[in-house]
Specification:
single chain, alpha/beta, Spore Coat Polysaccharide Biosynthesis Protein SpsA, Chain A, Rossmann fold, 4 domains, ten-stranded mixed beta sheet, seven-stranded parallel beta sheet, 27 strands, Glycosyltransferase 2-like domain-containing protein, Glyco_trans_2-like, Nucleotide-diphossugar_trans
Length: 979
C-alpha cells in the first residue's frame, strides 16, 4: 500500500465499477455499456437479478447458495440482493466470500474486540482483515494462506494485500492448479475429477478451489488425497446429522473446525493421533510452523525422517567443518581485541594447549563472548610449536605458563593452580564453544548451593549428539558418559542432578576446595581418570558434584590431545582408581544397560517418585494443576527425585516446560499414556513411590499398574484425589435443569472410587472430602490442601480500582465458564449505575482455544485479558475478587491466592463452605440463586473501606495460620513417609 493509499480504506460495501467492468466485460461489451454511471445502473437494473457481485470482496452467487434463508428473504422482497442483506444485516453474522471466514479470523486474533473495531472505524472483522490483517499476511480462512499465494508468483503489487489481489483476479488462476493452502490440493483435485477441468476451461469457475468451495454437491468431492468424505462420515455418526441438516457444508468443514483438534481420523490410512504423538510434530505445530497436525501431515506426506543415524555417521564431516570455522575465524581474532585483563576476577579459567592455535583462539573468543565480567585466564602452553608460542601478543590479559615439552592436561592444570586468584576455578578444554549463558549458569549454581563443590556441563559433540549428560562410575571402576549418542533435548538429559563425575572439558570447582585437595592426583599422570578421581574426592570431602543442563558446551572431543590413547594406560589408571576408591565403588552398580537410569545419579539413597498427572501441571492452567505443581516443588525441596509423567503429551514449547518446573525435576515431555507401561518396565525397581494425581487417572492407570506390579519395587501407590467430583457433577446436573439425575450421589461416588483400592494411601484436599472417602470404605486417607504465602505488603483500598475474575477455562462445560456466564449475564447488569462507569470487570486466566468467550468482548465493561505471565500485578490493581461458582469440588486455589495477595473476596456460598471460612468475616458469601444479593455484596465491599480492610485482614490471617509453607511441607512429608 502506498503512502497515499494508507488513509484510504478498502470497503466491501461499495460498488467497484472498474472491477465490475473487467469481471463482466463480455455482457457489458455486448450491450455497449461503457461509462461508470451506466455500469452502475446496469448492475442495479439487471446485474442483481443475474447474481452479479458488486465488488471483488463479496460473492453474490456464493452468498445466496451458502445462506438459503437469505435467498428466501429476497424472494419475499425483504432485500433486493444478498449484497444488500450483508450490508444492512449480514455483516454481523455471515461470511461475504468463499475465501473468508469471520469466525476463523477472529478466533486467531483474540485481541480484536468489538470495542477495538469500533475505535478503528471498522464494522466487523472483514473490515479489519481487508485493511490491516491482509497487509500483515494473516489468513482469513483455512483455504487461503497468503504465503502460499505469494510463493506462487501471483502477486503483482504492494498496494494491496495477498487476499485482495487474489479475489480481484477476474480471470481463472493460471493453470488452475496453484495451491493456496495445505488443506486443498488443486493438482490432485483436477486429476481426480477431470469433469471439473472441463468446467474450468469453460470458465464456469475461477479455480479448482473455487469449484470445491462453491459446487452444489459438496459431499461428493474430497479436497486432497488425505481426506475422505465417505470414510469420515461413516465413522463419525455424531457428525452425519449435522451435515445433513446443513450445520456443516460437508464433513471436511466439520473436520477442520473440530475433528482435526480432536485428532479424528480423516482417512482410514491416516492415524492423526499417532502422528501427533511425535515430539517434532508437536513442537513445529505449537511453534506455529503449521496450523495443526493435519497440515503438518500433508506437508510431510505423513513421513517423519529421523536424522539421528546420519548425525552419528557424519561426525567426521562435522569435525572438519569445525576445524575450518576455527581457521576462518583466526584472522579476525588476531587483531588483539580479545581482552581478559582484570582487577578482581569472578573466577579463574585454566586452559591447556598443545598446538591448535586457531582452535584455542576460537575457544577464547567464545569464553569472552559468553561472560562479560572479569575473569583470570591462565593458558598453559604445553610444548606447542605453532602460533601458541606467541598467543599473548594477540590476546590481552592472558597469563601464560610455558613448558618446553608436552606435559599433558593433568600436570599443566596443577602447575596453573598455584597462580589461581579467583574463588572458582574452571577447567576448560580449548576444543570447544560455549553456548550462551554457560559460565554464568555454572557460577550461579555454585554461589547458590554451598554444598556443591563442582558443576559440569551438557557436552554436545560437533554432530549435534550428546557426548555426556553427566558421567557414571561402575563398581569395577569403569566409567561411561550418560546418554552418549542421544539427542541433547531428550528429557533424561535436561534436569539437574548429583552425579559421580563430570568431564574435565568443562568443570567449575570451588578454588579453596580444589587447593585443599591438591588439584589432580599425579598418580594418574599423564592422562585418564584424573577428573573422575578429583570428583570422587570432592564427594568424600562432603560436597556434591552436579550436572547442570543449562550449561551447554559444543565439544570437538579428542581435538587437542597430544597423547596417543592407549588401552594399557587406561587399564593401569583404572586399577589405580579402583584401589583408591574401594569404599565408594562398593556402593555402585555392576555395569548393565538396564541400570543406567539407576546409576546416573550419585545420590543412591535418595527416594524416587513417579508423579503422574493429566497434563504437565503448569501453574497457569489452574484447575488443580497449580496444586500439583506445588506438590512437585515441595517433594523436590524435601529431597526426593521426582519424575513427572503426563497422561497426555504436552504441546507447549520447550521454553514453557523448562520455566514451569524446578530444574531438578525430570519432566517426561515426549511420552504419554500408551508408552507408560514400557517406561515403568524399563525402570523396574527404580521408583519407591507412584503418585497418581486425580481420581479419574486411577481408572486410566489401573490396567497399566497391574501389568507393571513387579516393576514397582515397593508396590507403593498414592492416589491424590485432588477433589471428590461426584457431588459437583450432581450439582451441575440439577442446576442445569436435567431433572433428577439418573444416579444418586452415592452411586456416583461408588463409581468414582472404584479403583482407589490400588492405593496404599489416599490424599484428599480438605477434611470434607476426607470424610466422604472414609464413609465409603477408605480409612487410609490423609489431607493435603494448598500452600500460600501471604504477601508482606500489597496495595491498599485507595490504590485499587476494578473487579477481578481469575480462573482457567478448559472447556465450555467447566465450572469457571458456567460461573462467568452467570455473572456476566445476571449480576453485571445489576452493577450498572451503582459503580463508576470506568470500573472494569477483568477476566483473567488460561482460556482453551475451544472455549469461545468472544461474546464477552462485546461488553465495554468487560476487560478480557486471558492468560498473563504474572498474576501479582493483576491482583494488586483490583479492589474486589469475585468467585461466583455454582458447582465445584475440592478447594478453589484462586480463593487462597487472591487472599494471599490481599484482595478481598465475594464468593458463592458453596465456595465459602469448601474452604471452611466464616461468611462476613473472611469473605462475603452469597448464594448464586440471588443475583441481586451478589451485586449488593460487591457494591458493599467495593465502597466500604472499613469492611474491605476487615475482610482482607481476616483472610490474610487464615492464610498465615492454615496454609504456611512449613505446615504444608510437614503434611506432605508425613504422607510420603507412611511406609
Amino acid at each position: 500500500m502506498t503512502s497515499s493509499d494508507k488513509n484510504k480504506k478498502l470497503d466491501w460495501s461499495v460498488f467497484d465499477s472498474v472491477w465490475y467492468k473487467e469481471k463482466y466485460k463480455d455482457v457489458l461489451n455486448f450491450l455497449q455499456v461503457q461509462t461508470d454511471e451506466a455500469v452502475q445502473e446496469f448492475y442495479k437494473d439487471k446485474g442483481i437479478s443475474l447474481k452479479h457481485s458488486p465488488n471483488p470482496y463479496f460473492d453474490e452467487d456464493w452468498y445466496l447458495s451458502k445462506y438459503p434463508d437469505v435467498a428466501e428473504q429476497i424472494i419475499r422482497g425483504d432485500f433486493r440482493s444478498g449484497f444488500e442483506h450483508y450490508c444492512q444485516k449480514g455483516f454481523t453474522s455471515h461470511n461475504p466470500h468463499w475465501l473468508f471466514d469471520e469466525a476463523y479470523y477472529l478466533k486467531r486474533h483474540p485481541d480484536i474486540s468489538d470495542v477495538g473495531l469500533a475505535e478503528l472505524g471498522f464494522r466487523n472483522g472483514y473490515d479489519h482483515y481487508l485493511n490491516i490483517g491482509d497487509f500483515q499476511y494473516s489468513s482469513g480462512s483455512w483455504f487461503f494462506d497468503p504465503n502460499a499465494y505469494l510463493k506462487g508468483g501471483q502477486a503483482t503489487t504492494l498496494e494491496l494485500g495477498p487476499y485482495s489481489q487474489c479475489v480481484r483476479a477476474t480471470t481463472p488462476v493460471t493453470g488452475y492448479g496453484h495451491r493456496l493452502s495445505w488443506y486443498f490440493d488443486p493438482e490432485w483435485y483436477l486429476e481426480t475429477y477431470p469433469e471439473v477441468r472441463k468446467e474450468l476451461d469453460a470458465r464456469e469457475w475461477t479455480s479448482a478451489l473455487h469449484h470445491y468451495l462453491v459446487n452444489k454437491t459438496p459431499t461428493l468431492f474430497n479436497p486432497d488425497p488425505y481426506f475422505s468424505e465417505e470414510f469420515y462420515g461413516s465413522i463419525n455418526n455424531d457428525v452425519s446429522g449435522a451435515v445433513e441438516s446443513g450445520n456443516f457444508r460437508n464433513f471436511f468443514e466439520h473436520f477442520l473446525k473440530y475433528g482435526v483438534h480432536e485428532l479424528r481420523k480423516p482417512l482410514s490410512t491416516v492415524d492423526l493421533e499417532g502422528y501427533y504423538r511425535n515430539p517434532t510434530v508437536q513442537q513445529e505445530v505449537n511453534r506455529g510452523d503449521y496450523a495443526d497436525a493435519f497440515a503438518h501431515y500433508i506437508a510431510h506426506g505423513g513421513r517423519l525422517e529421523d536424522d539421528a543415524a546420519f548425525q552419528k555417521e557424519s561426525e567426521h564431516i562435522s569435525k572438519k567443518i569445525y576445524h575450518e570455522m576455527c581457521r576462518i575465524r583466526m584472522p579476525l581474532l588476531l587483531n588483539g581485541t580479545l581482552d581478559f585483563t582484570y582487577e578482581y576476577p569472578d573466577f579463574t579459567v585454566i586452559i591447556i594447549a598443545h598446538n591448535h592455535f586457531a582452535m584455542t583462539l576460537s575457544a577464547l573468543a567464545s569464553l569472552r563472548a559468553n561472560y562479560n565480567g572479569p575473569m583470570q585466564v591462565i593458558v598453559v602452553d604445553s610444548g606447542s610449536t605453532d602460533g601458541m608460542r606467541m598467543i599473548e601478543q594477540h590476546v590481552r590479559g592472558l597469563e601464560v605458563i610455558r613448558f618446553p615439552g608436552n606435559i599433558g592436561f593433568l600436570l599443566g592444570c596443577n602447575a596453573a593452580l598455584e597462580k589461581v586468584r579467583g574463588p572458582f576455578t574452571l577447567y576448560l578444554n580449548n576444543d570447544l564453544e560455549l553456548v550462551s549463558g554457560a559460565t554464568g549458569n555454572a557460577l550461579a549454581r555454585l554461589r547458590s548451593e554451598p554444598k556443591t563443590g563442582a558443576v559440569g556441563a551438557k557436552l554436545v559433540r560437533t554432530n549435534g549428539m550428546l557426548q555426556e549428560a553427566g558421567s557414571i562410575v561402575w563398581r569395577d571402576g569403569s566409567v561411561c558418559g550418560y546418554l552418549r549418542d542421544r539427542r541433547p533435548d531428550v528429557p533424561e538429559a535436561n534436569f539437574v542432578r548429583s552425579v559421580d563425575f563430570c568431564s574435565g572439558a568443562f568443570l567449575l570447582v570451588r578454588t579453596d576446595l580444589l587447593k585443599q585437595l591438591g588439584g589432580f592426583d599425579t598418580d594418574y599422570a599423564p592422562a585418564y581418570f584424573e577428573e573422575t578421581d578429583l570428583c570422587l574426592r570432592i564427594h568424600e570431602a562432603g560436597f556434591d558434584v552436579v550436572y547442570d543442563p543449562s550449561i551447554v558446551v559444543i565439544h570437538y572431543e579428542y581435538g587437542t590431545s597430544g597423547f596417543i590413547s592407549g588401552a594399557s594406560m587406561i587399564a593401569r589408571n583404572q586399577e589405580t582408581f579402583r584401589k583408591k576408591h574401594g569404599n565408594y565403588l562398593r556402593q555402585k552398580n555392576l555395569f548393565h544397560e538396564r541400570l543406567l537410569v539407576r546409576a546416573r545419579s550419585s545420590a543412591t539413597r535418595q527416594k524416587r517418585i513417579l508423579f503422574i498427572e493429566d497434563r504437565l501441571p503448569y501453574r497457569f492452567l489452574g484447575s488443580g494443576f497449580t496444586r500439583s505443581n506445588d506438590v512437585i516443588r515441595s517433594m523436590i525441596e524435601l529431597g526426593y527425585h521426582v519424575t513427572v509423567y503426563p497422561v497426555y503429551r504436552p504441546t507447549e514449547p520447550m521454553e514453557e516446560i523448562c520455566s514451569s518446573f524446578p530444574d531438578r525435576a525430570e519432566v517426561i515431555w515426549d511420552r504419554e499414556l500408551p508408552e507408560l507401561e514400557d517406561f515403568i518396565k524399563s525402570r523396574a525397581g527404580y521408583y519407591d513411590l507412584v503418585w497418581i494425581a486425580r481420581t479419574h487417572n486411577a481408572d486410566r492407570l489401573a490396567p497399566v499398574l497391574m501389568q507393571c506390579a513387579d516393576a514397582i519395587s515397593s508396590h507403593a501407590v498414592i492416589i491424590d484425589t485432588e477433589a471428590v467430583a461426584a457431588p459437583r457433577e450432581h450439582q451441575k446436573r440439577v442446576l442445569r435443569g436435567d431433572g433428577v439425575p439418573e444416579q444418586s450421589v452415592e452411586e456416583m461416588l461408588k463409581h468414582e472410587f472404584r479403583h482407589l483400592f490400588m492405593a496404599e494411601k489416599i490424599v484428599a484436599v480438605n477434611n470434607k472430602d476426607a470424610e466422604i472417602l472414609k464413609k465409603n470404605g477408605f480409612p487410609n486417607v490423609g489431607v493435603l490442601g494448598h500452600m500460600q504465602k501471604p504477601l508482606p505488603y500489597s496495595p491498599g483500598w485507595e490504590a485499587r480500582r476494578d473487579i477481578l475474575f481469575l480462573g482457567a477455562m478448559h472447556d465450555s462445560d467447566s465450572p469457571n465458564v458456567d460461573s462467568l456466564a452467570w455473572f456476566s449475564g445476571q449480576v453485571l447488569p445489576l452493577l450498572e449505575g451503582r459503580l463508576p462507569d470506568d470500573v472494569k470487570f477483568t477476566v483473567c486466566g488460561y482460556i482453551n482455544p475451544k472455549v469461545d468467550l468472544s461474546p464477552l468482548a462485546k461488553n465495554p465493561r468487560i476487560n478480557l485479558i486471558g492468560r498473563v505471565a504474572a498474576v501479582g500485578p493483576v491482583y494488586d490493581s483490583h479492589r474486589v475478587f469475585v468467585a461466583p461458582t455454582r458447582f465445584a469440588a475440592g478447594i478453589p486455589y484462586k480463593i487462597h491466592e487472591a487472599a494471599a495477595h490481599g484482595l478481598p473476596i465475594v464468593a458463592s456460598s458453596i465456595l465459602c463452605e469448601q474452604v471452611g471460612w466464616t461468611p462476613g468475616e473472611d469473605m462475603l458469601s452469597v448464594s448464586t440463586t440471588d443475583p441481586q444479593a451478589f451485586a449488593d455484596a460487591i457494591v458493599r465491599l467495593y465502597e466500604d473501606k472499613t469492611l474491605w480492610e476487615s475482610v482482607r485482614e481476616h483472610a490474610l490471617t487464615r492464610m498465615q495460620e492454615d496454609h504456611s509453607r512449613a505446615k504444608y511441607l510437614e503434611q506432605l512429608k508425613a504422607l510420603l513417609n507412611f511406609q
